[in-house]
Amino acid sequence: MLKGKHIILGITGSIAAYKAAYLIRGLVKRGAEVQVVITPAGKEFITPLTLATLSSHPVISEFFSNRDGTWNSHVDLGLWADAMLIAPATASTIGKMANGIADNMLVTTYLSCKAPVFVAPAMDLDMFAHPTTRRNLERLRSFGNRIIEPAEGELASHLVGKGRMEEPDRIIEVLSDFFETRKDLAGKKVLITAGPTYERLDPVRFIGNYSSGKMGFALAEVCAERGAEVTLVAGPVALGISNPAIRRIDVESAEEMYQAAREAFPGSDAAILCAAVADYRPEQVAERKIKREEKGEMTLRLVPNQDIAASLGAMKREGQILVGFALETDDGVSHAESKLRRKNLDFIVLNSLRDPGAGFRCDTNKIAILDNAGTRTSFPLKSKREVASDIVDRLVTCLR
Ligand code: PMT
Fold first, then answer.
1. Which residues form the Flavoprotein domain (predicted)?
2. Which of 102, 123, 148, 159 lies 20 to 30 Å (CA to CA) from residue 184?
């Protein structure tokens, strides 16, 4: 799948830079053309001569050549690429990319790049776990960049933990999968709900939940990449979308989500309801900030919200596919089966807060898919993107 693809390989100053040699060999062997862009620190770890020999292209590092004044155009490079891969990506380069600090050829090329960008971080475990790095990676994700999570293992510091750059073979597999993507949702319209809902109490407070939107946004990205026209109804989340095939409608409350979903559903071939919708809202919304001094003890009266899934289930026409989620803490399977029937769903995705790394906020999830034929397919813990692919595989089967 990589035959003829133009790949910019960005290399930064990490001990994992030696793996770039294997990466180039693997990419070239699969027919890709590789152009290396390296940071000054990267050159301390691996020589341009090695990289130029393996890639059959001079390595680019500076904005211009001191020898003859030749200008290296980061804009042309950005346009030439079918993909940009930054491997290894240090905390420093990730920070510069997240904040637009274009003080070297690699980051300027990144900023000019129209093609999809893959980032394979490599650093010590504490650096990787630091909130700054987490925030910067989250920002890159929100720009639509794909993060190839580092593996766990022994690090250059001899500490053991998460931070080792993923192995070259696996990185090449991720790129191949990307280019191989089947367009098996071409011509289909998919409605997706994602994120939490906020139910207003007064101008400064609301009832909400911990949903980050990551699972629903991953579903939207995967559906769009596989050819669908996607309507994404999103609750309040801090995520971005880059695929032009995704029409995003931002809402705040369950009622707004209900209205937007009901409007989009009749024109859709399928709906995936991943949002964590508040089941209740305050009966009354105060116009002014509620003051403790005035209220003293307070009882909140809540009224039920519309059940979006059940309402779409009742509207569903022949051929439309309706997929729900069940987020459970106890008796997951029986609760999920009951929701599947009650809401007239075609299948339901069960995730449990009891499974480490599953559910709200994290980048991974562990699911089981239950359908009306009574089958249950369990999957191991995977990235939310991979989970989204598994769900979309099942959706495609149902649409057939
Ligand atoms: O956003 P992330 O941080 O990535 O987290 C992902 C997730 C945990 C939110 C997601 O994987 C998930 O489980 N979403 C559904 C959460 C939920 O509200 O489940 P539920 O069991 O309460 O609802 C069952 C189904 O009915 C869901 O499809 C839900 O969208 C839908 N529902 C619920 C209530 C309501 N009023 N209207 C609905 O449509």
1. 5-177
2. 148
